[in-house]
């Protein structure tokens, strides 16, 4: 058995607390149509009457509570503003009081660069940002200003007297319509984007020291098993040119493979962690995972820095608007494990053959 690592970070993909999840929670936005639909769902599933702020996380909460830092993609606006972004198929919002869900899971970081935080226009995005600030939850990818949207969130990991700094950036490659919003960090795959990302990184290292760099990206089309050449090339660029240690990818709705690249970790797609979506057979968007990353302290030439040692993947399933970890004898656990192994192998990355003691799939990084 591998020795314990010094710090644990948990990553998950989309956390969508809007629409039906919002209506089930004790506080929710005014939406009679969704409320009527939820009333029918509750009538046939009476246990949902007790759905509260802990409910979205199911039995995964202890894993979040035992981590040093939890990072999510918040796939919704949190607002009472009701004017939807025009001509968009899905517009999500959750009541700002539902930030209590994030507090219950001790979420330390929420990515705001995705295709839903502007679903109810600019004022709603600002309300979302202020909700996170008021609750001490760090964020990046959108903000009150352009500068705030592009700068990294700065978080601390502490071990006794020792303190390590973690910087997290967030960007999204869609929707293109939102390129007109300066306080939302949209990217494409041009050399201009690369230059900007490199400049942002360079500005940061001039002003402060970072012990771990994380880049959170909402990228690619839905329901695609393999990242495009553009995506893979950008991931490598982030490692090669921006010194990124962990790429936290999401958007595909289902799990994708991971790549260990030059001793750094690229998670191409975390999958949707909790939502109210219908299940697409074949792609199994109800199956996901908590992606736990183990870090060690490395004594390098320029002092101590954090090093990514290990990835542990805990398969989970969404059912009735709740995520739950899967026992190792559940056939869906096997499904996630097989998918992860096959997709990662196409990048030359092998998961350990034996599962960990908690049933997790283990990938050694360095
Ligand atoms: Zn999305």
From TrEMBL:
Pfam families: PGA_cap. The lineage of its organism: Eukaryota, Fungi, Dikarya, Ascomycota, Pezizomycotina. Belongs to the CapA family. InterPro entries: Capsule_synth_CapA, CW_Biosynth-Accessory, Metallo-depent_PP-like. This is Putative polyglutamate biosynthesis protein. Residues 8-277 form the Capsule synthesis protein CapA domain.
């Amino acid at each position: 058995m591998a020795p314990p690592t010094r710090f644990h970070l948990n990553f998950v993909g989309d956390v969508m607390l809007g629409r039906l999840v919002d209506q089930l929670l004790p506080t929710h936005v005014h939406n009679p149509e969704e409320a009527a639909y939820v009333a029918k769902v509750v009538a046939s599933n009476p246990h949902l009457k007790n759905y509260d702020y802990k409910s979205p996380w199911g039995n995964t909460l202890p894993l979040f509570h035992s981590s040093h830092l939890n990072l999510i993609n918040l796939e919704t606006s949190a607002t009472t503003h009701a004017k939807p972004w025009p001509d968009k198929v899905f517009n999500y919002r959750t009541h700002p009081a539902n930030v209590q869900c994030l507090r219950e899971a001790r979420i330390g970081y929420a990515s705001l660069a995705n295709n839903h935080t502007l679903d109810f226009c600019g004022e709603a995005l600002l309300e979302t940002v202020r909700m996170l600030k008021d609750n001490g939850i760090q964020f990046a990818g959108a903000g009150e200003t352009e500068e705030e949207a592009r700068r990294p969130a700065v978080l601390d990991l502490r071990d006794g007297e020792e303190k390590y700094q973690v910087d997290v950036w967030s960007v999204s490659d869609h929707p293109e319509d939102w390129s007109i919003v300066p306080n939302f960090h949209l990217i494409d795959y041009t050399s201009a984007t690369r230059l900007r990302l490199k400049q942002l990184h360079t500005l940061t290292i001039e002003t402060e020291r970072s012990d771990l760099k994380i880049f959170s990206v909402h990228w690619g089309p839905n329901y695609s098993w393999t990242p495009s050449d553009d995506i893979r090339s950008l991931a490598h660029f982030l490692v090669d040119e921006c010194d990124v240690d962990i790429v936290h990818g999401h958007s595909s709705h289902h799990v994708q493979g991971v790549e260990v690249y030059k001793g750094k970790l690229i998670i191409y797609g975390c999958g949707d962690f909790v939502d109210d979506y219908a299940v697409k057979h074949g792609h199994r968007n109800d199956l996901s995972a908590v992606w736990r990353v183990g870090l060690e302290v490395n004594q390098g030439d320029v002092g101590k820095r954090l090093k990514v040692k290990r990835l542990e993947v805990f398969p989970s399933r969404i059912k009735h608007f709740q995520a739950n970890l899967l026992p190792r004898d559940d056939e869906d656990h096997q499904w996630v494990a097989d998918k992860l192994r096959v997709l990662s192998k196409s990048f030359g990355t092998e998961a350990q053959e034996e599962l960990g003691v908690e049933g997790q799939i283990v990938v050694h990084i360095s």
